[in-house]
Amino acid sequence: MSAAKNLVRKVPGANAALGRADQLIQQRVAEAVQGTESRLAFLEQRYADDAAWSANEIRRIAPQVAALESRIEEIRERLETAPSGDDERQTAARDILDSVRREHEQIRARFAGMSQYEERLRRLEGAGENP
């Protein structure tokens, strides 16, 4: 480092040039930090809004899913206790029940995806608050 200081002393105007370069670098860094901070604030707000919307949708849909589960269970119990005849109505009812079960499984998968998304948002928000 002392060799660099000796060189700066020997070159005329080196201190002034280094000072200007330092100011330019500090200015660019400050602009970049300010831009990053404003972008981060925007993203944090957007993710908070998305998380709030998702949580609201889950709260809104959860009772409906619970009611569907209850209805599916009632239908399943009725079909299991019904006579084992192979008439068309019973076959159609079982087909409908299987279809409802598939749709119900898809709904559960979507809820799991939404929960994972919300957890990621919480972690991102937590990371943004504690840099």
Describe this protein's structure.
- This protein has one domain.
- It is 91% helix and 0% strand.
- The chain contains 3 helices and no strands.
- Helix 2 packs antiparallel against helix 3 (88-129).
- It starts with a helix and ends with a helix.
Helix and strand topology:
Elements: H1 2-10, H2 14-81, H3 88-129
Helix pairs in contact: 2-3
Task: Provide a concise account of the structure shown.
The protein is mainly α and 131 residues long. The chain has three helices and no strands. It starts with a helix and ends with a helix.
Instruction: Tell the overall outline.
Output: rod-shaped
Mean pLDDT score, rounded? Answer: 81
Tell me the number of strands.
Answer: 0
Helical amount: over 70%
Give the low-confidence spans. Answer: none
Task: Tell me what portion of residues adopts beta-strand conformation.
Answer: under 5%
Number of helices: 3
Number of domains: 1
Through-space gap between termini: 33 Å
N-to-C order of helices and strands:
HHH
Largest sheet: none
Which class best fits the helix and strand makeup? Answer: mainly alpha
Kindly provide the radius of gyration, computed on alpha-carbon positions and rounded to a whole number of angstroms: 32 Å
Give me some keywords for this one.
131 residues, mainly alpha
